Amino acid sequence: MKGLYFDYVLRTRYAETDQMGVVYYGNYPQYLELGRVEWLRSIGFTYKAMEEEGVMMPVVSLQIQYKKPALYDELITIRTKLKELPSTKIEFDYEILNERGELLSTANTILVFVDAKTFRPVRCPEKVLKLIEEKMSN
Fold first, then answer.
1. pLDDT classification of 112: cutoffs 50, 70, 90
2. Percentage of residues in the chain with pLDDT exceeding 90?
């Protein structure tokens, strides 16, 4: 899984910062969501398509370690890495870096695949597993 990651770059916005120009810590979960959604898109699938097929992915665990502040109008990279092949859950590790390559934070999320109607756990969709395996073999 080491090589299966995706970098998403964004510029921090004024509304995301406090009076000191520091990105408010509560915005980081949204950054992680952007990273996950774009990671999925990068392997050839979308979260929207998954929902249309009746599968949702609620977050069941979130951990963030803040190392340095992200600042207003700074380009940050959200590096999203798949930790292991998914089963009924999928786990990601993240690094958020500033434009100088400095590590701003690390994070981890665990999401569970659930049936959209019953909210009962289901296995990772076969399409997603195949796309992951294809990416890993390239």
1. very high
2. 94
pLDDT score of 137: 87
* Nearest residue to 4 (alpha-carbon basis) of 66, 69, 93, 121: 93
Q: Which helix (H) or strand (E) holds 63?
A: strand 59-66
Q: In the structure encoding, which two tokens stand for residue 49, read together?
A: 């398509």
Residue 18: active-site member: yes
Residue 100, classed as helix, strand or coil, is: coil
Q: 111-134 burial, b if ≥16 CB within 10 A, otherwise e?
A: bbbbeeeeeeeeebbeebeebbee
Hey, what are 83's tokens? 């930790």
pLDDT band at 58 (very low <50, low <70, confident <90, very high): very high
What pTM did the predictor assign?
A: 0.94
Of the residues 18, 73, 93, 115, only one is catalytic, namely 18
